[in-house]
């Protein structure tokens, strides 16, 4: 099971944002595999639903910007989308990958030993959308290794009503007046604050309420450019990591994130693949 407050034991979850997306195509098997190989605990993926009700892993509502296709995903059937391939936003010449069904990516990450943050991107009206999400996670045996995330806190509240055992994470761009209160209102387990709005008081109030603290940061070049002008935001981030204010660091560049965490004296949490995890539980049960 994902430990959502690892800061209490000097550890941290390292999350690849859409996989290790800095070197390739986001939300694809190569990005997820590379994240696992570079030491990620889990990866964030994005969920969309097609016209015929299939859940696919893709960030945008339209295909135009990051694939070889065109059009709104919600206006196309899965069979319309299946022939298209992903395309790098930054123009990298990398072979395109399929736009995969949610259930296929769940099984792939399960076998890699990766946890998942599943961000629901579409506007959701009623349980007809959320129930298939829950069913797919349960069928893959990933309930204990998944966080459902959204900017829409009503979605997080509603999915808890459907599946109380699923953990949830709110995404937040702002410095909230009462971060813990906002988290409790949606019964969320983790609250993410995007850079640069993260602040020690947010982390402290969430930890006091028993809620995990996630922090999304931009790519290393962002910090390097500002350091050239005499402002070292990375030094502030390192201080927060050393102080144990962050339970999960989310970044596009998993290699960089892993090295940063190590320099700050934190240990990255690694998950066993399900078969190895089951073997560990059996050994523990048989131990005298």
Number of strands: 10
- Which CATH architecture is right? Alpha-Beta Barrel
Q: DSSP strand (E) fraction? A: 15-25%
Strand order of the largest sheet: 1-2-4-5-6-7-8-9
Uncertain ranges: 278-284
Q: What Rg, in angstroms, do the CA atoms define?
A: 19 Å
**CATH class group:** Alpha Beta
Share in helix: 25-40%
- Compute the separation of the termini in Å: 24 Å
What integer is the average pLDDT? 93
Order of helices and strands: EHEEHHEHEHEHEHEHHEHEH
Query: From the helix content, strand content and strand pairing, which structural class follows?
Result: alpha/beta
CATH topology: TIM Barrel
Largest sheet: 8 strands, parallel, barrel
Structure annotation, total helices = 11
Q: How many structurally independent domains?
A: 1
CATH superfamily: Phosphatidylinositol (PI) phosphodiesterase
Shape: globular
Structure description:
The chain is of the alpha/beta class and 288 residues long. The protein has one domain: TIM Barrel (Alpha-Beta Barrel). It has eleven helices and ten strands. It has helices at residues 29-37, 78-81, 102-112, 127-139, 153-162, 179-185, 200-208, 220-228, 233-242, 254-263, 274-286, and strands at residues 11-17, 42-49, 55-57, 115-120, 146-150, 167-172, 190-194, 212-216, 248-251, 267-268. An eight-stranded parallel barrel has the order 1-2-4-5-6-7-8-9, surrounded by six helices. A hairpin with a 5-residue loop joins strand 2 and strand 3 (55-57). The two termini are 24 Å apart. Mean pLDDT is 93; it is low at 278-284.
């Amino acid at each position: 099971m994902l430990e959502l407050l690892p800061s209490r034991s000097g550890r941290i979850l390292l999350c690849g944002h859409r996989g290790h997306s800095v070197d390739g195509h986001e939300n694809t098997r190569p990005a997820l595999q590379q994240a696992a190989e570079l030491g990620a605990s889990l990866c964030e993926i994005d969920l969309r639903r097609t016209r015929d009700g299939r859940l696919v892993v893709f960030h945008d509502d339209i295909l135009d910007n990051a694939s070889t296709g065109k059009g709104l995903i919600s206006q196309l059937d899965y069979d319309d989308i299946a022939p298209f391939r992903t395309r790098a936003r930054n123009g990298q010449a990398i072979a395109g990958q399929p736009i995969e069904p949610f259930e296929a990516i769940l099984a792939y990450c399960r076998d890699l030993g990766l946890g998942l943050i599943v961000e629901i991107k579409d506007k959701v009206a009623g349980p007809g959308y959320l129930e298939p999400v829950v069913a797919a996670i349960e069928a893959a045996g990933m309930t204990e290794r998944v966080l459902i995330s959204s900017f829409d806190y009503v979605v997080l509240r509603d999915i808890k009503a459907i599946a109380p055992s699923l953990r949830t994470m709110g995404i937040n761009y702002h410095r909230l007046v009462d971060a813990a209160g906002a988290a409790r209102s949606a019964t969320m387990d983790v609250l993410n604050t995007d850079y640069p709005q993260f602040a020690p008081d947010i982390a402290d109030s969430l930890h006091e309420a028993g809620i995990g603290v996630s922090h999304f940061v931009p790519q290393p070049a962002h910090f390097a450019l500002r350091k050239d002008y005499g402002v070292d935001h990375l030094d502030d981030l390192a201080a927060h990591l050393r102080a144990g204010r962050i339970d999960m660091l989310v970044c596009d560049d998993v290699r960089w994130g892993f090295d940063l965490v190590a320099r700050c004296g934190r240990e990255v949490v690694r998950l066993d693949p399900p078969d190895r995890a089951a073997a560990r539980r059996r050994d523990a049960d048989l131990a005298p």
